[in-house]
Design brief:
- The complex is a heterodimer of chains A (201) and B (233).
- Chain A has 9 helices and no strands.
- With 201 residues, chain A is mostly helical.
- In chain A, helix 2 crosses helix 4, helix 3 packs across helix 4 and helix 8 crosses helix 9.
- Chain A is elongated and about 65 Å long.
């Protein structure tokens, strides 16, 4: 999470951007895009969707910079809030969409996974485990997934997660507890799946 | 130190190694209780172990996506959109400014042309008709010491409206000693005076009507001296 002085810096950048300073807008974008992209990709499981969501977030900021109120929270929290809404909308319409880019997406995730593999076999095994974890996270209900992504993958504190989601810390704890339990069960299931398949075969 | 139950352990026990969990004394106490509970309960110890394994896998996923960033094409698109938006805004502001300037110029031009038209119209009206006598206007015509009466002064150049000579229209009669060419740049001054004052201009006046008030149009030369007169009815 960004520090308070960075918030002032972000506020100043936003003010400049609102007046038409392109460089200030780009600095804001570069400062926040990666975290938002990771959050969106973990939540949607799609790099394309994450890309679209990040673009939407910054388009909103560009169109309505005055909607951001520094008294209500940090710029990061504000952008996360927009990203959360976009993710929710994406997940709501997800069943109606047919992904056409599965191949590309796999390619993208492989490129992103810069793993220091000792051997190709090890790399493949590790890759498989990562995909299993990714699938397990994606299999969680949205509200638990959100908490797991924020606290376990984005490494936010409970306070920060509570601030971003807009709920008490206790809710975060309980969601995380449920999310963990579900995640463990899913991981167990995914681990056992190849064994079951081989036993059947 | 209160003992921790299995339910409590599932909620609080698993976060004991979290980076952000070491926050307060209460947390430290809770962690100690969780550790104690884990040593006593094999089920919770197994849960803790499997969660640690899951955390390692989550860590691997996190590491795999740590370098993930929005593709540069998004930045390009946003940059383009930003330029379009602000360029359009600037253009719109400029258009508004230009529109207001043109409107202001049009209003100014209308006012000026109206004023010009109005003054031209006023000049085209015969000046004699505008000679309305008013008592409030001071007269500066030096007709004589007793001429304290107030009248309207008509400034009219003889170039535009040449005063009629004595013999011409019969309107103005040259005063004794004046020549017709003296009236070239003369102005018409309407005065209200007592008939007896006309004696000062060299005109004959019957004594019994000397006290009457009459209106006289005087043709006053550039030197302020009356050149001709006309008795208004």
């Amino acid at each position: 999470m960004r520090l308070l002085s960075e918030q002032d810096h972000d506020d100043a950048l936003l003010q400049r951007a609102a007046k038409g300073d392109e460089e200030a807008f780009l600095l804001l974008y570069r400062g926040h895009q990666a975290a938002l992209f990771r959050f969106a990709s973990h939540m949607t499981g799609s790099f394309w969707a994450a890309e679209e969501i990040v673009q939407d977030v910054f388009m909103t900021l560009m169109r309505e910079p005055k909607k951001y109120d520094s008294a209500r929270g940090t710029m990061g929290a504000y952008l996360f809030g927009i990203a959360r809404n976009r993710v929710r909308k994406h997940l709501e319409r997800l069943p109606r969409e047919v992904p056409l880019d599965a191949g590309n997406q796999d390619e993208a995730s492989r490129t992103t996974a810069a793993i220091n593999s000792v051997t190709p076999a090890h790399w493949a095994e590790q890759q498989q485990r990562i995909e299993q974890v990714r699938a397990a996270v994606l299999g969680l209900p949205a509200e638990f997934r959100e908490t797991v992504v924020m606290c376990e993958l984005q490494e936010l504190s409970y306070e920060e997660a509570a601030q971003l989601i807009g709920c008490p810390i206790g809710t975060i704890r309980s969601r995380l507890h449920r999310g963990r339990a579900l995640l463990l069960a899913k991981l167990e299931m995914l681990r056992d799946e190849p064994r079951r398949c081989s036993a059947r075969g | 130190m209160a003992k921790m139950t299995c339910e409590d352990f599932a909620v609080f026990g698993l976060e004991r190694k979290r980076k952000h969990a070491l926050l307060s004394v209460a947390d430290a106490t809770r962690q100690a209780a969780a550790l104690e509970h884990m040593n006593r309960c094999p089920r919770c110890a197994a849960l803790e172990q499997s969660w640690r394994a899951a955390q390692i896998e989550l860590q691997a996923l996190r590491a795999a996506t740590q370098a993930a960033e929005t593709p540069s094409r998004v930045e390009m698109r946003l940059r383009l959109q930003f330029r379009t938006k602000h360029h359009t805004l600037k253009m719109r502001r400029a258009a508004v400014a230009i529109a207001w300037t043109v409107a202001a110029a049009a209003v100014l031009a209308s006012v000026m042309s109206w004023q010009k038209w109005r003054s031209a119209k006023l000049e085209s009206v015969p000046h004699v008709a505008r000679d309305v006598p008013t008592k409030s206007s001071p007269v500066n015509a030096s007709v004589g010491p007793s001429h304290t009466n107030t009248i309207a002064v008509v400034k009219k150049s003889a170039k535009h409206d040449a005063p009629p000579a004595a013999g011409e229209a019969g309107e103005f009669t040259l005063l004794p000693g004046s020549l017709p060419q003296d009236t070239d740049d003369a102005a018409v001054v309407r005065v209200r005076l007592q008939r007896g004052t006309l004696v000062a201009l060299g005109l004959p006046v019957s004594e019994d009507r000397a006290g009457d008030w009459i209106q006289v149009d005087l043709l006053v030369g550039e030197d302020g001296q009356p050149r001709a007169y006309h008795l208004a009815r």
